[in-house]
Amino acid sequence: MEYNSFFNLQVELNDICNLTCKHCYQIRAKAKEELDIDLVLSQLENLKKITGYQKHIFRLSGGEATLRKDLFKVIRNIKSHGYYVEVMTNGMFLDLPYVYALKSSGIDICQVSMDGSSAEIHNYVRGQGAYEKSIKGIKNLVKVGIPVEIKLTLIKGINTDDIRNMFSLCTELDVKYISLARFIFAGNGIQNFGRGNLIGNEVRDIFYKIAETGREFPQLNINVRDQLGRIVDIDIPKNVDMTKEPYMGVSYLAIDTYGNVYADRQLDIIIGNIHQQTLSEIWTGSSKLQDLRESKKYLRGKCIDCKINDICLGGNKTAAYALTGSPFEPDPGCWINEPINKIQLVDNFDKNMFQ
User: Fold this and answer.
1) Is the terminal CB of the chain with fewer CB neighbours within 10 Å at N or C?
2) Residue 54 burial class via C-beta count within 10 angstroms: exposed 0-12, middle 13-18, buried 19 and up
């Protein structure tokens, strides 16, 4: 699905999960709180008038979205308002009866997280038995006719050599979409993958590998969810999308279970709360969101004088924030001009820089 043409609203339906993934960016309270979807829907109509987007997609996550007992009702409710629906899941509860019910509810696409093409890799990150259940769930989705997108988080030393095998797995499973994103140094990942970040030329080389390997799988739609992909200087096959546009304050909002609103769910900066303000008020009145929207004004370091900063606008701001404490510092994954020492970045970490 072409996300650039949609306004994306990521909605965390709950705060519970059946897994404790080693790279998860959230440290869960494991509360029974569930987000009131009607409150979100009641505020969206005015937001639509402001953003100007004609198409909107609800990206339902958690926690684990499939643990929400009224998920089918939630989906039908959203669909009745004319919005697209994606469910983001670890895929472990997708038995055939459940998947048929998902189909009947009107879901448009299901994103299943996979961290490796083998049980050895995937289970290392997510726990024993996760691979087998997720593969079974994907097969059920394909059988019923629900479009599937596999989501791969790239963790250095864990799965960065597994890209070709992942593309092959998609082909074997008859999955048409795969998206790839860098591991973000946050949550559980701080303890488990302290050296799992791709830095500088490592990012460039991975992007090159994705493009060149993707050429061998023309039937697979490959989406690199990273603004640094916009500065890749090699020929990119048509089935590989590296054109992710700047989206913070433009085409995306995230809402957690407690109503807190974020410019990106992995950017741990709260810009408002829907129990205190409407989405429209947050969209137009948040100074933090406005700064992110006009981020070129606030770029720091090597980005200030970079001749291509209007293309990437400083790169992946979630990665910059995770490793430097500010979304306006240069993305540590950028390979232009100078190398960046990851260890120094982590040692100097201070998240108060954007307060």
Assistant:
1) C
2) exposed
How far the first Cα of the chain sits from its last, in Å, is 35
Residues 162, 210: Cα–Cα separation, whole Å: 11
Taking only the tens place, the pLDDT of each residue in 82-104 is 999 999 999 999 999 999 999 99
CA distance 182 to 166: 15
CB-based contact 115:30 (threshold 8 Å): no
In angstroms, what CA-CA distances link 61 with 38, 128, 197, 212? 16, 22, 24, 31
* Neighbour count for residue 173 (Cβ, 10 Å): 17
- For 284-303, what is each residue's pLDDT tens digit? 999 999 999 999 999 999 99
Q: What sign results for the dihedral spanned by CA atoms 237, 198, 161, 189?
A: negative
Contacts of 247 (CB under 8 A, 6+ apart): 8, 264
Contact 319, 331 (CB under 8 A): yes
**Sign, Cα dihedral of 246, 162, 322, 200:** negative
